[in-house]
Amino acid sequence: xxxxxxxxxxxxxxxxxxxxxxxxxxxxxxxxxxxxxxxxxxxxxxxxxxxxxxxxxxxxxxxxxxxxxxxxxxx
Length: 75
Hints:
By secondary structure, the chain is mainly β. Helices cover about 0% and strands about 50% of the residues. It has one domain (about 1-60). It has no helices and 6 strands. The strands form 2 sheets. A 4-stranded antiparallel sheet has the order 3-2-5-6, with no helix packed on it. Strands 1-4 form a two-stranded antiparallel ribbon. The N and C termini lie far apart (about 25 Å).
């Protein structure tokens, strides 16, 4: 799974499914690779900026070639 930060600010993220989770940061215009979550059901991704600003989505079923696009605006 790829998480792309299309904002002008660093984004913090946590990705989880079942009992496994990972977290990290994504620089502006960059992508985080999380291949352990490919072809996994009920993947949740939580985004925030350095000031909080939480945002989350749940992907019911992921698979190769699928794309989920979410726009996030930090102010």
